[in-house]
Automatic annotation (TrEMBL):
One of its GO terms (biological process) is cobalamin biosynthetic process. Its EC number is 2.4.2.21. Pfam families: DBI_PRT. The gene is cobT. This is Nicotinate-nucleotide--dimethylbenzimidazole phosphoribosyltransferase. The keyword Ribosomal protein does not apply. It catalyses: 5,6-dimethylbenzimidazole + nicotinate beta-D-ribonucleotide = alpha-ribazole 5'-phosphate + nicotinate + H(+). Belongs to the CobT family. It comes from Paenibacillus darwinianus. The active site is at E320. PANTHER family: NICOTINATE-NUCLEOTIDE--DIMETHYLBENZIMIDAZOLE PHOSPHORIBOSYLTRANSFERASE. Catalyzes the synthesis of alpha-ribazole-5'-phosphate from nicotinate mononucleotide (NAMN) and 5,6-dimethylbenzimidazole (DMB). Keywords: Cobalamin biosynthesis, Glycosyltransferase, Transferase. It is an enzyme of class 2 (transferase).
Length: 352
């Protein structure tokens, strides 16, 4: 109960966007040497970041991506194209700098953090954010993935990680996931919340064949039948069919919003976490910026259910925060345009 109260308190701290900063940013964009509105969604993003940070002319500041990792008991059903051991192995790869997200983060000038919310293995590395709630979830086809208390602890861990990064001076955050089997859990979450019908919620994830895809669909149906998650109780849904890293990511998004930091959302799993965050604290959505549209088939519908629109579409389906980190580029581009472009007046360019 104490964790529930704390969560309500953090949600209550999320403020509405700063309308005055947004109006000033909008006026500034209209004064720049370009046809009105011609920078399209970049203008929308710049205005929103102004509202989030409460500054008319914000800069991007220090950037961090957090990859939250957790294992999934549902892998016993053969729902992934890869073995569960990949989760801890990839955690070590993130810490060693060799994963796709590390390369993209280096290119974007961002730091990568990796958090263990529930990996099956005992991991020891000085760089790892150790927040293990339990070793992997239980098989959600047979019963709840975790207890309500564990779900709340995963969300609380994400809130704590966001606070720690804000304390370290990070101003722009991105959310990434690692957990073999987590597209199954994410599909079950989408369906449980009524965001996407079951038949459309299940996709190929890491690239399962038709037979495994059918098994994955059965697994999601079984998860909903056996657990009967209550869509009006987001923690109930998270605990029954979610994942530890998904809870962590939802908390991270809520924590970022409570600290007035923009949080870039990645692909399917990250957006499933965004849906949990949105159902817990609707106002947190104002602080989220969608990055890409994943190739995973339900992602578009899921983004829509959260109330987000992706900016780029590169047919990526990796996760890890890779799409979100690409988002650093266009967020920074939007802010630099607003900061650095000449106005009609300063450049002596005729308006009419
Ligand atoms: C080497 C490797 C690196 C990854 N990085 C992210 N994922 C992605 O794939 C997993 C989800 O797909 P499914 O539900 O089909 O298991 C997650 O770990 C996700 O982050 C990876 C998967 C693999 C194999
Ligand atoms: O959209 C994603 O993030 C995704 C899709 C498939 C597999 N892993 C991640």
């Amino acid at each position: 109960m104490e964790l529930e109260a704390k969560l309500r308190q953090v949600c209550g701290r999320i403020e509405p966007l700063d309308e005055s900063a947004m109006a000033q940013a909008s006026a500034r964009l209209d004064s720049l040497t370009k046809p009105l509105g011609s920078l399209g969604r970049l203008e929308e993003i710049a205005i929103r970041i102004a509202g989030i940070k409460g500054e008319a002319l914000p800069t991007a500041g220090k950037k961090a991506v957090v990859v939250m990792a957790g294992d999934h008991g549902v892998t016993a059903e053969g729902v992934s194209a890869y073995p569960a051991e990949v989760t801890p192995q990839m955690v070590m790869n993130f810490l060693g700098g060799g994963a796709a997200v590390n390369v993209l983060a280096r290119q974007a000038g961002a730091d990568v953090f990796c958090a263990d919310l529930g990996v099956n293995a005992d991991l020891a590395h000085p760089g790892l954010l150790a927040y293990k709630v339990r070793k992997g979830t239980a098989n959600l086809c047979r019963g709840p993935a975790m207890t309500r208390e564990e779900a709340l602890r995963s969300v609380a861990a994400g809130i704590e990680i966001a606070a720690m990064l804000v304390e370290q001076g990070y101003e722009l955050l991105a959310a990434g996931d690692m957990g073999i089997g987590n597209t199954t859990s994410s599909a079950a979450l989408c369906a449980a919340f009524g965001a996407v019908p079951v038949e459309q919620a299940v996709g190929r994830g890491t690239g399962v064949d038709d037979e495994r895809l059918r098994g994955k669909m059965e697994a999601v149906r079984a998860a909903l039948d056996v657990n009967r998650p209550d869509p009006l109780d987001p923690i109930d849904v998270l605990s029954k069919v979610g994942g530890l890293e998904i809870g962590g990511l939802a908390g991270f998004m809520i924590g970022g919003a409570a600290h007035r930091r923009p949080v870039l959302i990645d692909g399917f799993i990250s957006t499933a976490a965004a849906l949990v965050a949105a159902r817990l604290c609707p106002r947190a959505v104002d602080y989220m910026i969608a990055s890409h549209l994943s190739h995973e088939r339900a992602h578009g519908m899921l983004l829509e259910a959260v109330g987000l629109r992706p900016a780029i579409h590169l047919d990526m389906r990796l996760g890890e925060g890779t799409g979100a980190v690409l988002g650093f580029h266009f967020v920074e581009a939007a802010l630099r345009l607003m900061q650095e472009m000449a106005t009609f007046e300063s450049a002596g360019v005729s308006k009419e």
